[in-house]
Amino acid sequence: MADPAISVESLTVQYGDHRVLDGVSLNIEAGEVMALLGGSGSGKTTMLRHIIGLERPTSGTVRVRGVDINRCSPKELRDIRRTMGVAFQECALFNAMSIEENIALPLHELTNLADPVIEIMTYMKLAAVGLGQTAKQMPQELSGGMKKRAAVARATALDPEILVFDEPSAGLDPIVAAGLDELILILKRAFHMTILVVTHELASAFRVADRVAMLYKGSLIAVDTKDAFQHSTHPRIRQFLDRVADPIAESTAIQDHFRELAGMAGGQK
Amino acid sequence: MNVLEGIGGGAVRGLAYLGGLTIQGWMGLRATPRVLPLVGKRGRWRAALRQMAAIGVEALPMVATMSACAGFILAMQAGAELRRFGALKYVMDTVAVGFTRELGPLLTAFVVSGRSGSAFSAEIGTMVVTNEIDALRTMALDPIEFVLAPKYLAAMITIPCLSIMSNAFGILAGAGFMFITTNIRLPMYLRYVANSIELRDVFTGLLKSLVFAIIIVNVGCLEGFRTRGGPDAVGRSATSAVVWSTFLVILADVFFTAIFYLVRKG
């Protein structure tokens, strides 16, 4: 069998005394859409930053198409990065450049294509995400959803084999978010891209993903097909799926604190 | 014990900062040829040209005004003392030598560090905070080459040029003073000035301003790259970019002036 597109092996990340990821292992096969779920603070953004090679793990390996991205030569890393597109949560469009220049940048910098070819490709990418009319505008003139789509266009500029999305639907209204989900599915079907979506939006994850992985407090508690995941009986997964709050308000410490605030004798039950 | 700990910790942090500056400075120098026209990456020199306009051309009115004022001040202060000995003509030497060796490069460095050093760190700091630097890295583009190198090249060209302009305006202000006090006209003043300064003074001044340029760009960019957190962190790095680059410019000035002094004496 071919190497998995992305292979994470016992990835451990520790900042000081705080262990953010604890021996996480995950394989993402070529051509599949994997949704990485998890609540706030579960370590999913940290895991993403390690998968795209922005940070070095405390221990463990991350292989992208068989290459260990923390131990390879700078040239190998450059080659890997060229086959990987990343759409950041905050879009990370270059604010000093127009939308068109943003998408053309990787083409200008990393290919030897002639300017007219780059222009045509830029407009194709923008048209594919439905932004053909806004090419000359600056990022700050666009709405949140349009920025996200521009970020997707830039991430796909070099026709990557692997595409990584960080919270694609965070902060968007349901209609725009659904549009982004459809865009992800089109990219998968049309270009056979391997796609990793990091999200906490269940609806979006179940719409786009083939398989779902769930992080809880730095460990993976499930890696499963989405059907099996939806019928899981694991208490944490059920809590996540059924939207049950953690019992913070019931803890005695908080109740005592509220009593004090209300001027009642502290600690009295 | 605590005092010693404090001194030691401060020294270690200071050395780490200087180390960071050195590494970044070296990486920046290595990336700079890729910004040059013809031999560099295509289109990259346009970024350097934009930076040259921002660092150099736009700073010229301020540098000119400040230098003229400082030249006039220097002439008046020197004149007040020298007049008592009937040696008013040495005002011309003071202004000419003072500016070419010292004041021109220094005033220019202060103006550029205030105008552009803070702008560098604010620009890069904002890029860090909004993940633009991360985006560059994931696109296999080196932030040093892409963001720092154009500024490096632009500063190393424009800051010495600005210093020359500063010298010119300072010396011209001296001419104004001499005309008012002793009615010496401009052509005569210039002839005297040309005799009193040596080419070596001009070169040492330009060498200094090249070093100042490297310091200002590196400190501004390092403060930017080290920005962590939100928008308030961007403001803090802009402030410390100006504070640190001014401080290091003065330190470098003492160092180089001492070397030139010893060389001249020996």
Tag the structure with descriptive keywords.
heterodimer, A: 269 residues, alpha/beta, four-stranded antiparallel β-sheet, 23% strand, globular, B: 266 residues, mainly alpha, 9 helices
Secondary structure tally: strands of chain B: 0
Give the low-pLDDT segments of chain A: none
SSE pattern of chain B, N- to C-terminal: HHHHHHHHH
Termini separation of chain A: 63 Å
Shape of chain B: globular
Number of strands of chain A: 10
Low-confidence stretches of chain B: none
Q: Briefly note the structural class of the backbone of chain A.
A: alpha/beta
**Overall pLDDT level of chain A:** 87
Fraction of residues in H or I helices of chain B: over 70%
How many separate helices of chain B? Answer: 9
Tell me which oligomeric state these chains represent.
heterodimer
Return the structural class of chain B.
mainly alpha
The percent range for strand residues of chain B is under 5%
Q: What radius of gyration of chain B results from the CA coordinates? A: 21 Å
Short description:
Chain A is α/β, with parallel strands linked by helices and 269 residues long.
Question: Can you tell me about this structure?
Answer:
The complex is a heterodimer of chains A (269) and B (266). With 269 residues, chain A is of the alpha/beta class. Chain A is built from ten helices and ten strands. Chain B has 266 residues and is mainly alpha-helical. Chain B contains nine helices and no strands. Chain B has helices at residues 2-31, 44-55, 60-82, 90-129, 132-138, 143-182, 186-196, 199-225, 231-265. The mean pLDDT of chain B is 92. The A-B interface holds A 49, 52-54, 77-78, 81-82, 84, 86, 88-90, 92-95, 105-106, 108-110 and B 41-43, 126-127, 130-132, 134-135, 137-141, 146.
Layout of helices and strands, plus pairs?
The complex is a heterodimer of chains A (269) and B (266).
Chain A: E1 6-15, E2 18-28, E3 33-38, H1 44-51, E4 59-64, E5 67-68, H2 74-82, E6 84-87, H3 99-110, H4 115-128, H5 144-155, E7 162-166, H6 174-191, E8 194-199, H7 202-208, E9 211-216, E10 219-225, H8 226-230, H9 235-241, H10 252-261
Parallel strand pairs in A: 3-8, 3-9, 6-7, 7-8
Antiparallel strand pairs in A: 1-2, 1-4, 4-5, 9-10
Helix pairs in contact in A: 3-4, 3-5, 4-5
Chain B: H1 2-31, H2 44-55, H3 60-82, H4 90-129, H5 132-138, H6 143-182, H7 186-196, H8 199-225, H9 231-265
